Amino acid sequence: MSTLKKIKILFFVLVLPTFFISCKKEVAPEAKPLEVSIVKVLQQDVRLESEFTGQTFGQSDIQINPRVDGVIESLDFKEGGLVTKGQLLYTIDALPFQEKVHQAEANLAEMQARLAKTKSDYDMMVPLAKMNAVSQRELIAAKSAYNAASASIKAATANLENSKIELGYCRIVAPISGLIGISKVRVGDYVRPGATSVLNTVSDLADVRVRFTMSEQEYLRIFREITKKDSSLKGAGKSISLLLSDGSVYPETGKISFADRQIDPTTGAVTFEAAFANPDQLIRPGQYVKVLVVTDVRKNALIIPQRSVIEMQGIFQVYVLDNSNKVELKMVQIGPSYKDSYLVTDGLTANDKIALGGTSLLKSGSVITPKMKEWAPGKADN
Asked: For the domain that residue 315 is a member of, what is the CATH number?
């Protein structure tokens, strides 16, 4: 056998097994089913809340106005602090009003002296007139002078009382107990009476008022629902909630105090006022809040997490789990939102189980490993 032939035989012996091994198809390991969080469709009564924008007021917000004119001599309170009813707040220069009191006292003393003289003259005239020692004309004149002096006494007394009242107005005291604001005047400022002359405001914050408006259409719908026999909305006005500007829920619930007598013709809305307890004085006048009012109650509503819903061009779908652990994409009709969930009006039943969502690997028809999870609307750990 030639050397070249031997080399060819050796090549086939060494290379062919390697060729067949490399051409052998590798078989991939079987993939494990995807583990997916599954939740049950909940069925329960749901109280749906509507959100309105409101503004807060104190239970009483009393403006402090001067009732006499003069120069502010002192501020006798701590701005932004608590004051009690009758506490001195401001003093106005009292000297001009003290002078009025002295003048009124002197005038009254003069009138009293005149009254004593005219009374003496009249008393003396009466027996003389009976003896015809003086004429009736003189008697009548003496009586008239006495009556005029009596009337002057009343006028002088009233003038003195008024002067004392004005002097008292130089001391401005708190009309109620509450929280006082920042003073709008300082020592040395000249003030005068008037509706626009506001020195400060005191607010009673033990309770607060919240005013909000509701559209005429919403008002009519709620009114008709409440007036129905055995309405599920009866008593809804006694459990009003507040959402503060930082997104937190105010811990106290309130109740509607009243509605305005008319619908505002310029806005087509009616104004409501709700009362809330304010034990920690967290709420101050002038805050803007969200008022949550129960405006609808759905009996035995079906609820699913918002995370479970896939929306595309107005079509809502969820992955529904069957008994063989296979998920199928199913179209549903979505109703109002409730906390972090949706109400479902069609497409699901109370016995259905759906995928919670959160994975893009899920496909319709996929077999999964379900991981059951408890959930409830509004729970942060859902």
From this structure: 2.40.420.20
3-class DSSP state for residue 79?
coil
Residue 377 lies in a domain: no
CA atoms of 7 and 230, how far apart (whole Å): 104
Residues recorded for the chain: 382
Containing 120, the helix (H) or strand (E) segment is helix 95-130
Domain count, the chain: 4
> What are the residues facing 263 on neighbouring strands?
none
Burial 52-76 (b: 16+ CB within 10 A, else e): bebebbbbbbbebbbbbebebeebe
Q: How far apart are CA 17 and CA 91, in angstroms?
A: 113
Measured distance CA(377)–CA(340) in Å, rounded: 6
Average pLDDT over the chain, rounded to an integer: 88
Phi, psi of 315, rounded to the nearest 5 degrees = -105, 130
Q: How far, in Å, CA of 166 to CA of 161, rounded?
A: 9
pLDDT digits (tens, 9 = 90+) for 218-268: 999 888 888 888 887 877 788 899 999 998 999 999 999 999 999 999 999
Copy the structure tokens of residue 125.
């005239």
